[in-house]
């Protein structure tokens, strides 16, 4: 307890010294800008650099930038420095920062601007002042982000969606009440231990108890402020959800694809907390029933493009993307395991509407929209698991270092939720065994990753289930076949086939009898010929040979 207090005291002093050194000559902003620019130039600056070294340098530069940015934007004493931050338009056009880096630096400043505009009028009971203040700030930002992409992008999604998605952070949409409750309970247990410790002096006990109680009060105050902010943000999102995907110039598939390209995929690889944020933001879109947002199409595209995304990741990016997939699979698994929960949250949701197309050859062909029932959802879940398995197998069969490494990294992150089906787990296990055999002496780092994942996979073997338990698998029953065969048409067809089979068998038997008859006649003819040539013919032949021999002997004597 004493050592931890000394540690925090020294850490606080170090933070103060670092803050003073960065703010002395106002160099923290140039450092952040240079770190972001260097991260981008690493990929395109030197084409002769090895891909493994390039990925490592990129990750190191990314980690340095995020650590520096978090230190400066989350420290309350840096509020004056945050006010000097340039606008998004300046950061993106003048300093050439990408959208993820620019919003990472501006996120705290934008939140402070909304609070200043709202003033003291903000409350969860009357969220309209907060909504108006956020409308003023985000509308200006929406005009600036239009310069990032061509107009065809904004034909599919709204600039307001882009600005809202990138301007919010995880605490805005995620309220970890259970974590606050658990931490407060832990501190209360520590207070009880201090009071029960008879070796401590009473003065020391009072000091420790006071410190713990002060910490509990701070946690409760922080939880309360987080709860107020969470409710206000939800009210704001509820007011603007219908304009996010309201474009009439594109289909739902195009809108989802564009949303994934410019929002979800980029941010899910930025930091670990951003990966969780992306999954929770989509859950929020589904829960609020955002207009024209299809949750089914979103999940289908996520699991269809895994191999392409994993191929282009660095090691740390693959780890964050795996965290994002794990959080996505966790939400899907909740619905898959509980039918009542699925019917409550998805049964009548517009995000789970699928289209049934009529016969295109008929005159009255129409598209019928239906809600996806629970059993069909389980079929779709199995398809998504199969796609994910196929993507991982593709990475392992490619023989490429980056693809194999990233595939193993992603599988390690999603292990709590995948694989679940036994035959898919066996397919992965077979490929992992092949990777271990091939990379044991060639690339030992890949061999170590494969060994680690194989051990964890074996430890979860008792949790795998058969495919029949994961979703309903149709089997051909004898009763169905009997009922199908009992129809009049089936009976006529079966009678015709039996008749043709009988005719064929009789014809074959007749031909076989004819062949046997001909064979018997031929053998009898040969036997008769042999009988004609027997003793008499043989005797004449012997007499002729004897006469020839006598003539030869008489000629020899005369000579």
Lateral strand order in the biggest sheet? 1-2
Main beta-sheet annotation: 2 strands, antiparallel
Q: Could you tell me how far the N terminus lies from the C terminus, measured between alpha carbons in angstroms?
A: 144 Å
Percent of residues in helices comes to over 70%
Would you count the extended β strands for me? 2
Number of helices: 26
What is the CA-atom radius of gyration, in angstroms? 40 Å
Low-confidence stretches: 477-483, 485-489, 533-546
| Global structural class | mainly alpha
Strand composition percent: under 5%
Please give the oligomerization state of what you see.
Answer: single chain
**How much is the average pLDDT?**
84
Q: Helix and strand succession?
A: HHHHHHHHHHHHHHHHHHEEHHHHHHHH
**Overall form:** elongated
